[in-house]
Design brief:
The complex is a heterodimer of chains A (about 100) and B (about 140). Chain A is mainly alpha-helical. Chain A has a domain of about 30 residues. Chain A is built from 5 helices and no strands. The longest helix of chain A is centred in the first third of the chain and has 24 residues. Chain A is flat. Chain B is elongated, with a radius of gyration of 18 Å. Helix content of chain B is about 70%, strand content about 0%. Chain B starts with a helix and ends with a helix. Chain B is an all-alpha fold. Classes of the chains: A mainly alpha (about 100), B mainly alpha (about 140). At the A-B interface, helix 2, helix 3 and helix 4 of A face helix 4 and helix 5 of B.
């Protein structure tokens, strides 16, 4: 029993150590040469108007570059509504039966 | 709610809110905003109407068949718009690749399929919000 608890503590400390090491290795926030500022965002910023003919870059990404994502997002909305309606809706026949 | 002032103010303001929602949907590719935000505004105008005037009057304004059809065909409309690319020999949901005229950036007719897809998504979001509201309100009673 005592050994098991010590083992759990050891594993938790190891995981915490790993997480802290990872956080310490992260690049500073908002610097221009961070790895997130790669060729993808560069391409969106420079050629969104030419590629899609749309001035609002968010719309260009959501409805053109990432159109598949938005399509399945609407399917997620549909599924959520379906689940809520199935769970909560009381049909008229059921009400009159009671 | 049986407040006279609230009803009169809502009767003046709500049509403008609904129109503004459609404006945000249709201008999603020109100005800030978009189909999701505009759909929420349209749905909010219907929710405010049925909160102030009572759920039965809101139901009468927006019958269940309308909600069912917009709910189901919003997603299908997205798929149909994607098929336009396939009929022109381009990938699914292609816009510029399918050779559609993109127009002058900044005008309302620019963007090819984007504004049409956005209209479908906006109506879809509005009907989702209103359906959730109606279902939850009726479950309580």
């Amino acid at each position: 029993m005592r050994i098991g608890k010590l083992l759990i503590l050891l594993v938790a400390l190891l995981v915490a150590y790993g997480i802290l090491i990872t956080v310490a290795e992260l690049p500073p926030y908002g610097m221009p040469d961070n790895p997130v500022h790669n060729q993808v965002s560069e391409r969106y910023i420079n050629e969104a108007v030419e590629d899609t003919g749309v001035l609002n870059m968010v719309t260009a990404i959501v409805l053109d570059y990432r159109a598949y994502d938005t399509m399945f997002e609407t399917i997620v909305l549909f599924t959520a509504t379906l689940a809520v309606v199935i769970t909560l809706k009381t049909s008229k026949r059921e009400e009159s039966g009671k | 709610m049986r407040d006279f002032i609230l009803k009169r103010v809502a009767a003046i303001i709500l049509p403008f809110i609904c129109t503004y929602g459609f404006y945000v949907i249709l201008h999603g590719h020109v100005s800030p905003g978009g189909s999701f935000a505009g759909g929420i505004i349209v749905g909010l105008s219907f929710i405010a109407f049925s909160t102030i005037y009572g759920i039965e009057k809101g139901r009468a304004r927006l019958p269940e068949t309308v909600l069912t059809w917009t709910e189901s065909f919003g997603t299908l409309w997205y798929g149909i718009m994607g098929m336009v690319g396939i009929t022109k020999g381009a990938p699914f949901l292609a816009n510029k690749l399918a050779g559609i005229d993109l127009g002058v950036p900044g005008t309302l007719s620019s963007g090819g399929l984007i504004s049409l897809i956005g209209l479908g998504v906006g109506i879809r979001v509005a009907s989702t919000i209103v359906t959730l509201f109606f279902t939850m309100m009726e479950e309580k009673s």
